[in-house]
Amino acid sequence: MTGTASSSAEVSLSSLRRASHPRSQAKRSRIVDAAMRQFAENGYHAARIGDMAAALGIAKGSIFQHFGSKDALFFEVYKRAVCSFPKYLDAPADMRAAGFFAVLYYWLVRTEHLLREDWIPYRISLLGNYGTDLVLKREINRFLIAEDPYGTVAFVRFGLSRGELRKDMDVEMIVSVLDWTIERFQDALLVSELDPGLFRRPGEMPEKREARILQFLELLRRAVGAQTADPPPRSDLRRVAGATVVAKPKNTMAKSRRQT
User: Fold this and answer.
1) What is the pTM of this model?
2) What's the confidence (pLDDT) of residue 130?
3) Sequence-ordered list of residues with C-beta below 8 angstroms from that of 212, at least 6 positions apart, any chain
4) I need a surface site. Which of 157, 206, 221, 254 has the fewest CB within 10 A?
5) Which ranges of 21-169 does DSSP label H, i.e. alpha helix?
6) Which residues does 222 contact at the CB level (< 8 Å), separation at least 6?
7) Exposed e or buried b per residue across 197-214, where buried means at least 16 C-beta atoms within 10 angstroms of its C-beta
8) Residue 260 DSSP class
């Protein structure tokens, strides 16, 4: 499979000029929209460029003119998907006032929203994390590190400024810990909804789900939390996260992040 790293090097100057034209940009956007649904519904390998072209009423070659390869097209789809998720600090003001770990709890208890209303971008983020080859995954990781679409660095600095995180750890180490663990934990919660027999017994009580979230946050607090910072009371966590879901949860906060 041709990766974006190799295909991008082959893009001609004329292709770059076309991409900068407003009409061309609009067409690229339409192609990405159609491709996003095709990839989400069929997976990376089963999605066909010809089907995308047919859905748009354009020639298959037109898609390759704009993106060069299937890898490059998926990469654009992936970037749009993860950039559609909110950043950590997009949590409501009262959540931020309650602190770093309260913000994490707020997003984690809203994880199912990804499945219910944001299933297309979430599915794309899963494909980027688990369903592509190493060449394309390398490009995805570079993008996540360079662009930080979930605002993890700002979120970690927020926690440090409040004295809730360890100051003896490198900031990038804490960022990586969040990226590696939060997204994987969210994926596990969501996949259990898609296939209850995979991660847990069918019919598990919501109370056990919340207990797992709280246990996970306690593990994180012990790993990266400041020793002098007391954990927020569980009643406070439930209170600050108890509002009706109106905002989109992350990653994919992390999601698929620097990985994850």
Assistant:
1) 0.77
2) 85
3) none
4) 206
5) 22-42, 49-56, 60-67, 70-83, 93-98, 100-108, 112-117, 119-130, 134-147, 152-161
6) none
7) eeebeeeeeeeebbebbb
8) -
**C-alpha to C-alpha distance for 133 and 115, rounded to whole angstroms:** 24
The one-letter code for the residue type at 21 is H
Range of the domain at 11: 4-82
Going from the C-alpha of 37 to that of each of 86, 112, 251, 260, the distances in angstroms are 20, 20, 19, 22
With vertex at residue 225, the alpha carbon angle to CA 222 and CA 228, rounded to the nearest 5 degrees, is: 100
Distance CA 106, CA 95 (A): 7
Total structural domains within the chain: 2
Cα-to-chain-centroid distance, residue 54 = 29
Placement of tokens 């749009």 in the chain:
80
Q: Dump pLDDT digits (tens) for 4-20.
A: 444 443 434 344 445 55
Please report how the helices 171-194 and 152-161 are oriented relative to each other, as an axis angle in degrees rounded to 10: 120
Is there a single domain that holds both residue 106 and residue 232? yes
Q: What is the CATH number for 33?
A: 1.10.10.60
Nearest Cα neighbor of 223 from 190, 178, 186, 184 is 178
| pLDDT score recorded for residue 147 | 95
Q: What percent of the chain has pLDDT over 90?
A: 57
